[in-house]
């Protein structure tokens, strides 16, 4: 469906969300917005086939307006790596053209986001200084930037003009100037980062000067027939930063220039460590958490105002428009999880939208191509054929109802196969359910429910509480088997002294599955996690125990507890653990136990520390494959495909992706 809004049947419940809107010189087909985000699919800093296929899928799925990820306009402010866009010379124009053509073919519109990262992103060109209004470093880079001279300021303004011209020459529908997240343009505006004493600093009027000059340059470069937007924080949410009140005033000043056609309101600043976590928070952050900032700004301006931030339910999006809080609703991660939101709304199948559950896999694979927790195709659009009917319907057995098995069964059934899933436990879900049952991850149940509903719709037969073996197939005509039997926790190590100690040794995964046997009379005790996994599993188990009254310590030989978790996800975990007085002991190895004491030895000083009165030690060194059925099935002459942890223990999103591959292979 090329245009799922204009002239089409519009379900009443979504009439506000699906109504067209005039943004400056262009009519947008609906209010579904995909805000600027970098899928890390560019090649040599230009839109590649993969990049275009990714964006095109969202246009085909019905998004009204899309915005590219930040494209650096000047060599001093480009985002690191070749997988992000750079609009620093005419080399980007052919890629923009191909991108624009693809989006227009699908009935959508696309803007190029123009950015200078200022002090917020370490420069990939070794030794090149960062540029900023004042020599104030971001907590994310700890790099002191160079204070720009007036001629350098002019050079960047000129770069915005040239970049906007390339957007126009590339046939995009316009540009958005990124003046948020502490990037250069907002760094001039903010008293947090601008301490200048010249015409570009001091008073609000002087701090605003650079923004206005950039907007004038971008408008001149674009011409009158393209959209120009500005992305701003509704509040920088940090002492000395721009407040919500400041931003209401600034928004009026920007709108009054006549240069811009909309304001796109976000939140926070990457100058601060906590700021990066706040503007794209993972679950369990509330949905629609920045709407009120957009609504406040909207009251003072007469151009459209956009909102974004954990809006995943189209009903919420419709209500935001209906209530006049914003004019377009960004559902960015929601579109990563399911590019077909608009189409599914129009077709009356809202319940089939694959939910974004706030896992933040999409933002945490630094540098690598985008991936999504629940959508196996995100970032692979150019390479996957959608659920094309299989040439011959086959009888397929999926062994294991975890994430890989669920996706394999769903995909195979969607292709017309007759599918049966055997799960040895009482419920479907495997590790996905395990995660959904941990503190702060309850939202993952939405994905689980989505899978259960999808299997039911596809008439997949589900057999629970069945320990599958080759004998299960006796007398049944089965064409192929997909083995998705997952993994189990690697056995805990038994340190010196364990035999004489009353301390129970277990693993976080076992505790997530079944509460520990030796909890005290009030269901409590002291748990020591020795975490050599560095992922979320150990921390989730500790949080679960702490919630039920346990006290806890966590030790690891790594430099940081949770070393392999992205800081955006690690931050709320730390907030929870530290508020519960959990003791964090990095750089320590568990060497022995003496009765109820656990002895740790420092990796670097060899000094020993005693943790007393320990009841439970959770030893975590990852999972071990559970592939015992592979050889017997193969020996029985059955064609077997494998997917997920039974191949090698990895993450849920990889299991789901492999499930999709297996479902497409049968
Ligand atoms: C993978 C990824 C990359 C992003 N890159 C950018 C970017 O280049 N420029 C930008 O303004 N925002 C960027 N964002 C932030 C989004 O525009 C949006 O503000 C954020 O995802 C919150 O909205 P949501 O909850 O609807 O996803 C990015 C978000 C994601 C998930
Ligand atoms: S990885 Fe998680 S937060 Fe990101 S789009 Fe997918 S479900 Fe949403």
Can you walk through the features of this model?
Residues 1-7 have low confidence and may be disordered. With 666 residues, the chain is an alpha/beta fold. The chain is globular and about 75 Å long. It is 31% helix and 18% strand. The chain has three domains: 12-126 and 159-177 and 214-351, Aldolase class I (TIM Barrel), CATH 3.20.20; 395-488 and 625-665, 3-Layer(aba) Sandwich (Rossmann fold); 491-621, FAD/NAD(P)-binding domain. Strands 3-4-6-9-10-11-12-13 form an eight-stranded parallel barrel, surrounded by seven helices. Strands 16-15-14-17-28 form a five-stranded parallel β-sheet. Strands 19-26-20-21-22 form a five-stranded parallel β-sheet. It contains 20 helices and 28 strands. The protein starts with 20 loop residues before the first strand and ends with a helix. Iron/sulfur cluster is lined by residues 333, 336-337, 356-362, 372-374.
């Amino acid at each position: 469906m090329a245009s799922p809004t204009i002239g089409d049947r519009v379900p009443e419940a979504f009439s506000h969300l699906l109504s067209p809107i005039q943004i400056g010189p262009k009519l947008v087909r609906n209010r579904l917005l995909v805000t600027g985000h970098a899928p890390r699919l560019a090649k040599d800093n230009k839109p590649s086939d993969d990049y275009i296929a990714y964006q095109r899928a969202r246009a085909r799925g019905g998004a009204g307006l899309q915005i590219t990820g930040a494209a650096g306009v000047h060599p001093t402010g480009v985002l690191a790596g070749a997988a992000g866009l750079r609009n620093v010379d005419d080399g980007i124009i052919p890629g923009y053209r191909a991108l624009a053509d693809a989006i227009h073919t699908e009935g959508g519109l696309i803007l190029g986001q123009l950015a200078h990262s200022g002090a917020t992103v370490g420069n990939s060109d070794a030794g090149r200084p960062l540029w900023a209004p004042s020599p104030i470093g971001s907590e994310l880079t700890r790099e002191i930037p160079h204070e720009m001279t007036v001629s350098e300021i002019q050079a960047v303004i000129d770069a915005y003009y040239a970049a906007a011209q390339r957007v126009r020459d590339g046939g995009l529908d316009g540009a958005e100037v990124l003046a948020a997240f502490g990037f250069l343009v907002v760094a001039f505006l903010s008293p947090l980062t601008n301490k200048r004493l010249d015409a570009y600093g001091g008073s609000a009027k002087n701090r605003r000067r650079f923004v206005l000059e950039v907007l004038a340059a971008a408008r001149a470069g674009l011409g009158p027939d393209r959209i120009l937007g500005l992305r701003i924080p509704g509040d920088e949410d940090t002492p000395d930063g721009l407040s919500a009140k400041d931003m209401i005033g600034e928004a009026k000043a920007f709108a009054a220039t006549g240069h811009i056609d909309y304001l796109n309101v976000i939140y926070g600043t990457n100058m601060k460590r906590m700021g990066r976590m706040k503007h794209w928070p993972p679950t369990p952050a509330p949905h629609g958490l920045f709407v009120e900032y957009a609504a406040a700004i909207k009251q003072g301006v007469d151009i459209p105002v956009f909102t974004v931030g954990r809006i995943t339910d189209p009903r919420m999006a419709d209500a935001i428009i209906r209530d006049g809080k914003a004019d377009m609703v960004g559902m960015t991660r929601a579109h990563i999880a399911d590019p077909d939101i608009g189409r599914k709304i129009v077709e009356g199948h809202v319940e089939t939208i694959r939910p974004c559950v706030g896992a933040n896999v999409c933002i945490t694979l630094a540098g690598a191509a985008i991936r999504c927790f629940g959508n196996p195709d995100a970032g692979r659009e150019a390479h996957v054929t959608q659920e094309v009917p299989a040439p011959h319907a086959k009888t397929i057995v999926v062994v294991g109802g975890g994430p890989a098995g669920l996706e394999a069964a769903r995909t195979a059934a969607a292709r017309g196969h007759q599918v049966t899933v055997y799960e040895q436990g009482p419920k479907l879900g495997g590790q996905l359910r395990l995660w959904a049952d941990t503190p702060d991850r309850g939202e993952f149940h939405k994905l689980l429910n989505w899978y259960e509903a999808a299997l039911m719709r596809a008439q997949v037969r589900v057999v629970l509480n069945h320990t599958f073996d080759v004998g299960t197939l006796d007398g049944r005509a089965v064409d192929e088997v997909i083995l998705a039997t997952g993994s189990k926790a690697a056995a805990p190590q038994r340190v010196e002294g364990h035999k004489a100690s009353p301390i129970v040794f277990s693993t976080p995964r076992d505790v997530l599955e079944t509460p520990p046997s030796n909890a005290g009379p009030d269901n409590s005790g002291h748990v020591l996690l020795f975490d050599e996994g560095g992922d979320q599993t150990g921390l989730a188990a500790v949080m679960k125990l702490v919630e039920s009254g346990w006290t806890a310590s966590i030790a690891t030989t790594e430099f940081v507890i949770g070393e392999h978790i992205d800081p955006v996800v690690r931050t709320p975990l730390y907030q929870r653990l530290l508020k519960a007085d959990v003791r964090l002991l990095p750089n320590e190895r568990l060497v022995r136990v003496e009765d109820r004491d656990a002895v740790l030895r420092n990796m670097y000083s060899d000094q020993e520390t005693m943790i007393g009165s320990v009841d439970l030690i959770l030893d975590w060194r990852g999972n071990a494959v559970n592939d015992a059925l592979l050889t017997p099935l193969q020996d029985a002459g059955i064609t077997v495909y494998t997917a997920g942890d039974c191949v090698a223990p990895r993450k849920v999103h990889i299991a789901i992706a492999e499930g999709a591959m297996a479902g497409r292979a049968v």
